[in-house]
Design brief:
- The chain is an alpha+beta fold and 132 residues long.
- 24% of the residues lie in helices and 25% in strands.
- A five-stranded antiparallel beta sheet has the order 1-5-4-3-2.
- A hairpin with a 6-residue loop joins strand 4 and strand 5.
- It is elongated.
- The chain binds a DNA duplex (15 and 15 nucleotides) through strand 2 and strand 3.
- This is WRKY transcription factor.
DNA sequence: GCAGTTTGACCACAA
DNA sequence: GTTGTGGTCAAACTG
């Protein structure tokens, strides 16, 4: 259905690499026209994956999305869109038409990858030395 | 001081 | 009727 969309992470990585190539380094949050807010994260032991929950921050918009990834394979990300946006995207010309859902989802995926996994293009700094 | 993110606790539903 | 899992909310922490 249109309300539930699952996307493989392969496209995400591919697009990510393209974006990184274009921008030279880390990609900025690609505004897909929607404002997502993370409101929870859980480890679903039934599937052995972490799941993050996002809500569209727009007023009266009930659109949500979930991001699942394996603890052993954090790049194996799966995104599930739930619900539909009751508003139009404000920062993008992307529409909610079925033909453009792919682009729209990919844009969302960038955002998710960054929010869920952090910016993997820039490895975190080394941990501080132990207090001892 | 503000905004955003993270984590824990609580509630509801299904088995 | 009980237990477990999933989903959401709210408070605290970090940038």
């Amino acid at each position: 259905m249109n309300t539930d969309t699952e996307i493989s992470e392969e496209n995400i990585i591919d697009r990510e690499e393209q974006e990184m190539g274009r921008r030279g380094h880390r990609f900025v949050l690609p505004e897909d026209g929607y404002e997502w807010k993370k409101y929870g994260q859980k480890f679903i032991k039934n599937i052995g994956k972490f799941r993050s929950y996002f809500k569209c921050q727009r007023a009266n918009c009930t659109a949500k999305k979930r991001a699942e990834w394996s603890s052993s394979e954090p790049t194996n990300l799966r995104i599930v869109y739930d619900g539909v946006h009751t508003h139009d995207s404000s920062t993008s010309t992307i529409t909610s038409s079925s033909n453009n859902n792919g682009n729209n989802n990919i844009a969302n995926q960038f955002n998710l990858l960054t929010q869920v996994l952090g910016d993997q293009s820039t490895p975190p700094p080394p941990p501080p030395p132990p207090p001892n």
